[in-house]
Structures are given as structure tokens and as C-alpha cells.
Amino acid sequence: MILLKNYKRELLSLGILLIFSWGLINYAYKKEVPISEKTAVFSGEISDFINANITENSVIILKASVTAVRGKELELGSVISVQYLESESQSFDNIEKGDFVLLKGIYLGYDDLFEEYKLINCILLDDE
Amino acid sequence: MCMKYRFLFYFLFLSALVSAQKYATRSGKTSFIGSEETFEQIKAVNSVSTSILDSSSGEIAILLFISAFDFDIALMQEHFNENYMDSSKYPKATFSGNIQNFSFKELSDSEKEHKILGVLTIRGIEKEITISCRLKKIKKGLSLKTNFNVLASDFEIKIPKVVRNKISQEINITAEYDLIEKL
Fold it and tell me: Which domain holds residue B81?
């Protein structure tokens, strides 16, 4: 108790410093919000997506047919390239050409080299 | 063979020949290190870089989306995109160049050094560069590896005084692409 009385100011400063440091570390090392929890700015089919003029780096939900499966990439409607997270490999493994999929991912932009739209970090959604 | 069918035959033959001369990837790995070995090193990987190589001429084009660089720390990624690269205004970085003395036939299973002369475009600023790369033949294509440095100031990437001792002016870039025959 005597110690607490004598060093009241120092202990208070130390407490504030600890709280501030904890807040700072939490801010600096905040985890990225998983794609499943991010809000999509667009939800629809390919034709609507192309006409929608969506900003790059936006989260979108797309319903489309798979026109090609290239290893760990899918092609939708012959104009969209889809790449998914390693953690999602299992759910994408069974997808075949011709399947209809509902997926959520980040729209990166238009790839001028391959002349296609690019989606990354995609996850499959349940189509009910 | 009548003229119409002969023309069709030549057309199909030439189309097959032209398509067989292109090698491409949609999942090239491009990484960079932008700091010295510090407590939290500034490094990131872009695993969705695209590239196309014309094997008849040695011409190569690379495109990558800046926002696809993945950092270990989310806040670092946010600062990289917003404060340094301005990725909403300049979403892409590109490189187009020519591999000197390139001959696909002469490639083998062991790596061979080549020079690439080309133009690197970052933040809309073009810079002519010459880089060394290592090429080797792989199944259905070729592997390209390169490591080179660029100056942040060449692309008007402004580093604030307060972090100047943490972020180096010289950025080390590494690229590893497996280019597969484009059908």
C-alpha cells in the first residue's frame, strides 16, 4: 500500500503507457478482414458486371458458367480469370468446365495482356 | 485441292504456328524487398502477375496489379497502396522488353543467363532498364527468373523523412515465371 501511495503517479503513467502500446500494436498488426466478411459492391451475372463499370479492388459476387479450368485458375464466360486462395483449393477441386458457380472475390481490374477481367482471392458461395 | 480449301489449310496451319510461338503465365510470382533487415521487413509478393513471351522474337510483356501485392501486415499493405504507390490512380505496373539473343531451341534443363532490354512502367512513369535473367526449359514451356534493383526516386515514390532509415531508396525486385505454351 505504501508503495502504491509513493509511486502513484509513476504507476499511473506506466498503466497509460501500457494501454497506449497495446492499442498501437493492435492497430499496426490488425488482421485483414476475410473475404467472406467483406461487403460486396456488386452481385450479378457477367453481362451486368461488364456494364457496371466497377472500381478496381472492389469485392464482387458473380454467378457464371465455367468455360475453362486451368490448374488452379478458372475462366468464367471466356472473359474473366478467377484465382482462388490456397485455403479454398478443396472446395474448387470438384469444379469442372460447364458448371455454374456463385463466387465472391476481389476484382483487380482488366488485364490488357490476356484481354480479360481478373478476380483474385475468390471463395465459393452456396447457391440456394 | 481447290483454292478455297488450300487457303483454309494455310490459314489453319499459320494460326497453329503463331499460337505455338507464345508462352504465358497468369500466376507469375513477383516480390520485392523495400527495406534493410529490420524488425519488420518491408516485403511483399504478387502471385498473380501475367506475362506473355513471343518465342520467335524474344519479346516479353509483363503486367501486374499493384494492389495484388500481399504483405504479412495488413496496415503495411494499406500504406503501400495509398501513400506510396497510389494504386487507385496507377493500378498497374508493366514491363515490355526483348530478351537478347533468345532462341527457344537452344534452351536446356540448366539455367542460362540472358539480358533483357525493356521499359518498366510504374506509377505511369516509364524507365528504360537492362536486367539479367536466367532461362531454362521446363515441361511445356520455359522458366524465367530475375533479380534486379530499381530506385524509388526514378518512379517518384516519395519516402517521408520519418521512415527514411527504414525504407531503402533501392528496391530489390525478384520475379519467377513459369511460361507455358499458350494454346
Answer: 21-181
The size of the A-B interface in CB pairs under 8 A is 53
Name the interface residues of A facing B (CB cutoff 8 Å).
27-32, 55-57, 70, 72-73, 81, 83, 108-109, 111-114, 118, 120
**Are residues A76 and A100 both part of a single domain?**
yes
Number of domains forming the structure of chain A = 2
The radius of gyration of chain B's CA atoms, rounded to the nearest angstrom, is 20
* Cβ-Cβ contacts under 8 Å, B182 against chain A: none
B14 occurs within a structural domain: no
DSSP string, B15-53: HHHHHHTEEEEEEEEEEEEEE-S-SS--EEEEEEEEEEE
ipTM above 0.90, yes or no: no
Regarding beta strands A73-76 and B112-122, do their DSSP bridges make them parallel or antiparallel, or are they unpaired? unpaired
pTM value > 0.80: yes
* A62 and A103 belong to one structural domain: yes
User: pLDDT for A52-105, tens place per residue?
Assistant: 989 999 999 999 999 999 888 999 999 999 999 888 888 898 899 999 999 999
Q: Which residues of chain B does A109 touch, with a Cβ-Cβ cutoff of 8 Å?
A: 65, 91-92
Q: Is residue B26 part of a domain?
A: yes
